[in-house]
TrEMBL record:
Gene Ontology MF: a single term: metal ion binding
Signal peptide start-end: none
Gene: rhaI
Record-given protein name: L-rhamnose isomerase
UniProt-listed Enzyme Commission number(s): 5.3.1.14
Residue span(s) of domain Xylose isomerase-like TIM barrel: 90-265
Enzyme class: isomerase
Keyword Isomerase: yes
Length: 408
C-alpha cells in the first residue's frame, strides 16, 4: 500500500467527519489475547487432523504465540488452559513467555475432560467431586498469581442430557457455592470472567446457559466477577451486540472469546462467516468508549479482555491466528469510522433509513490503507499474513517439530 493510498483515505475520512488521529491511537491500543490451545493439534469430536509443525509442548505454544505477536504487535498475552498447559513451575512459564516477548493471559481451568466430571464438576451430585473441582479452581487462582495473570476464565461443561437427570435448582446452588469459594480466593486485582453456553456437551440443560445466568451470578459474587461473551455460544439469530450493549451498560462485560459460527460452536476464524456481526459488536463498544458522560460504561469498555477461542482443524494454525487478529482489527477499524453525529441526528429525526445508512456506511469503508499505515508507523509489517509466508517460520517449525511428542 502506497503512502498516497493512505493520504487519499485520510482525506476521505476527514471529509466524513472522522478524527483520524484518534482512530489510529485507538487501533494501536487494541490488544487481543491468543489461546495456547489454538496452536496445538486440536480438532472436532469427529477427527483431529494432525498438522506438521503444530505445537507439541507448552514452550512451543508460547513460541507460536510470540510469533503472532511479533508480526501483529497486537497479541502480547497468551491464554493458558489447565491442565492442558500444566507445568511444574509456573513462575518459569511466565519467565519463558517474557523472554519471548509475551506474557501469560487468562488462566482457563479445565473441568470437562476427566471421567469424574461426566455428570458435572462444580454441580456434581457427589460432594467429593465438587470438592475436587473447587480445588482445581483454587489451584488456578494460584497459577494466575504465579504467572502474573489477572484473569480467570471460567467455562463449565456442567449440565444434563435428560429431564430428571439432575435437580436444576440444586445444581444452581452448587454452582454459586463453588464459585463463591473461588471468588473469595481472588487477589484484589484479579477478575473472574464467567462464560456461558446454551448447549453442548450437555443437551437438555446447561447450568450456565446464557448471559443472564452468568450476569446474575457475577452480580451475586461481587465486582470482580464479570461476563465473558463467547461469540459461538448463542442460539441462531441471537443479537449478540444487544447483549454486549446491555452488559456494558451494567458495567459487567468482562471479555470476549472470539470465533465464528454458522451452525453451532464451530470455533472457526473470527470475522470469516459474519463480519457484519463482529462490526456491530465493535460499534457498541466504540459507542461505550466514547460515552464520557457515563464513567462506568467507559471504564468497562476500556478494560474488555479480547481473547480468541478457536480450534483450527483444517487450516494451518499460526497463520489462522494471524488472520483472526487481522479480522478483529479490521472490524474495530470500521466501527471507529462511524459518524456518530450523523447517526444521532438521524435517530433524533426518526429517520430509520439514514440511521441504518450511517452505521452501514462505516462498514463499507475499505480500511486496508489505514491498517497498513498504522502497522507501518508502529514498525510492523503492513501485511502480517504476507510477512508470515515469507518469514520461513512455517518451514522451521515443521522441521524442528517432527518428533511425535504430544502437547496434550
Ligand atoms: C467451550 O466451548 C469453550 O468455548 C470454552 O471457552 C473452553 O475453555 C474452550 O472452548 C476450549 O475448549
Ligand atoms: Mn470459549
Ligand atoms: Mn466454545
Amino acid at each position: 500500500m502506497t503512502d498516497s493510498a493512505y493520504a487519499w483515505f485520510e482525506r476521505e475520512q476527514r471529509e466524513r467527519g472522522i478524527d483520524m488521529t484518534q482512530v489510529k491511537a485507538r487501533l494501536n491500543a487494541l490488544k487481543i489475547e491468543t489461546p495456547s490451545w489454538g496452536y496445538a493439534d486440536q480438532g472436532t469430536r469427529f477427527q483431529t487432523f494432525k498438522k506438521a509443525g503444530a505445537a507439541r509442548t507448552v514452550q512451543e505454544k508460547l513460541e507460536d504465540a510470540a510469533m503472532v505477536h511479533r508480526l501483529t504487535g497486537a497479541c502480547p498475552n497468551v491464554a493458558i488452559h489447565i491442565p492442558w498447559d500444566h507445568t511444574e513451575d509456573y513462575g518459569k512459564l511466565a519467565a519463558d513467555a517474557k523472554s519471548l516477548g509475551i506474557g501469560i493471559g487468562a488462566v482457563n481451568p479445565n473441568l470437562f475432560q476427566e471421567h469424574d466430571y461426566m455428570l458435572g464438576s462444580v454441580t456434581h451430585h457427589e460432594p467429593e467431586v465438587r470438592r475436587r473441582a473447587v480445588e482445581h479452581l483454587l489451584d488456578c487462582v494460584d497459577i494466575a498469581r504465579a504467572t502474573g495473570s489477572d484473569a480467570l476464565s471460567l467455562w463449565f461443561a456442567d449440565g444434563t442430557n435428560y429431564p430428571g437427570q439432575g435437580d436444576i435448582r440444586q445444581r444452581k446452588a452448587w454452582m454459586e457455592e463453588s464459585l463463591r469459594e473461588m471468588y473469595r480466593a481472588l487477589d484484589p486485582g484479579m477478575r473472574m470472567l464467567i462464560e456461558y453456553k446454551f448447549f453442548e456437551p450437555a443437551f437438555y440443560h446447561t447450568d450456565l446457559a446464557d448471559w443472564g445466568m452468568a450476569y446474575n451470578l457475577a452480580l451475586k459474587l461481587g465486582p470482580q466477577a464479570e461476563v465473558l461473551v463467547d461469540t459461538g455460544h448463542h442460539p441462531q439469530g441471537t443479537n449478540i451486540e444487544h447483549i454486549v450493549a446491555y452488559l456494558l451498560d451494567e458495567g459487567r462485560l468482562g471479555g470476549f472469546h472470539f470465533n465464528a459460527r454458522k451452525y453451532a460452536d464451530d470455533d472457526l476464524i473470527v470475522g470469516s462467516a459474519n463480519p457484519y456481526e463482529l462490526f456491530l459488536i465493535f460499534s457498541q463498544i466504540v459507542l461505550a468508549e466514547n460515552d464520557s458522560a457515563n464513567p462506568l460504561v467507559q471504564r468497562t469498555a476500556g478494560r474488555i479482555a479480547y481473547m480468541i477461542d478457536q480450534s483450527h482443524n483444517i487450516e494451518a494454525k499460526v497463520p489462522a491466528m494471524i488472520r483472526s487478529v487481522m479480522n478483529v482489527q479490521t472490524q474495530y477499524a470500521k466501527a471507529l469510522l462511524i459518524n456518530w453525529n450523523a447517526l444521532a441526528e438521524a435517530q433524533q429525526a426518526g429517520d430509520v433509513l439514514e440511521a441504518e445508512a450511517a452505521v452501514r456506511d462505516a462498514f463499507e469503508q475499505n480500511v486496508t490503507p489505514l491498517l497498513h499505515a498504522v502497522r507501518e508507523e508502529a514498525g510492523l509489517p503492513a501485511d502480517p499474513m504476507r510477512a508470515f509466508k515469507t518469514s520461513g517460520y512455517a518451514e522451521r517449525i515443521v522441521s524442528a517439530r517432527s518428533s511425535a511428542v504430544n502437547a496434550r
